[in-house]
Amino acid sequence: MMTSAIEVQDLRVSRGGREVLHGLTFAVARGAVTGLLGPSGGGKTTLMRAIVGVQAGVHGRVDVLGEPAGSPGLRARVGYVTQSPAVYGDLSVRHNLDYFADVLGADRSRVAEVLRHVDLTARAASPVAGLSGGERARVSLAAALLGEPELLVLDEPTVGLDPVLRRDLWALFAELAAGGTTLLVSSHVMDEAARCDRLLLLRDGALVADDTLPALLDATRTADVEAAFLVLAGAA
Question: Cα separation of 158 and 151, whole Å?
Fold first, then answer.
């Protein structure tokens, strides 16, 4: 069995005549939570879109679960949650999930389970348009979980959530990884690094680190990931 869920070799992405990702090479292990950290505007979303196979201007090799990124065979195997919730505002939470279960070919019995996972059971009958931003983001996450994807790509999933919900979501991510799901989670909140098995630190479209948190702290002789990032980025 392959040990890597994602393999990226010399990935470059150009947008509007300007290169925004600069020769990235790395691998993401199966069954682990890998954090993609860095400041806003550093290229995290572009990288995730390239991995999912929806980014234009891609050069280099991006393999996902043994297939080229964006291959038709990956559609049911990869879940992608964008920063902007991709759900229908005029439908209730449950009707959204019933719809996406049908699209994914998932059993509707999964709806109640994923509602519990994202702590939205009490809001199941509520129209999505009336939810808070954090709640809408959790509906998108629930939709992605319906198909039980092998790889889950999450773009800033904890933005706008209170500390308790952030904690609970990270506990869910750890539970999914323990069950064999691979997660790639982006964040600009550096303290979330402690919840990841491995870290990719991205700055201005370049990969400045690919390691575990203890190894990064040891190599930079720093006490936290934010200080380590500043050292690695040459800003300390």
Answer: 18
pLDDT (tens digit, 9 = 90+) per residue, 127-185?
Answer: 999 998 888 888 999 999 998 999 999 998 888 778 888 888 888 899 999 999 999 99
- Residue 181 sits at φ, ψ, to 5 deg, of -75, 140
Of 44, 140, 133, 30, give the one whose Cα is nearest residue 93: 140
Backbone CA torsion sign across 69, 72, 74, 79: positive
**CA Rg, the chain, in Å?**
18
Burial of 56 (0-12, 13-18, 19+ CB in 10 A): exposed
Which DSSP helix (H) or strand (E) runs through 62?
strand 58-64
Q: Residue 50 burial (CB < 10 Å; 0-12/13-18/19+)?
A: buried
Amino acid code (one letter) for 75: R
Cα–chain center distance at 165 = 17
- 77 near 149, Cβ under 8 Å? yes
| pLDDT band at residue 215 under the 50/70/90 scheme | very high
Per-residue confidence band for 236, with pLDDT thresholds at 50, 70 and 90: very low
The pair of structure tokens assigned to 15 is 């947008």
Closest alpha carbon to 111 in 88, 152, 99: 99
The span from the CA of 67 to the CA of 80, in Å, is 17
In order of their start, the domains of the chain are 1-77+151-236 (3.40.50.300), 87-148 (no CATH)
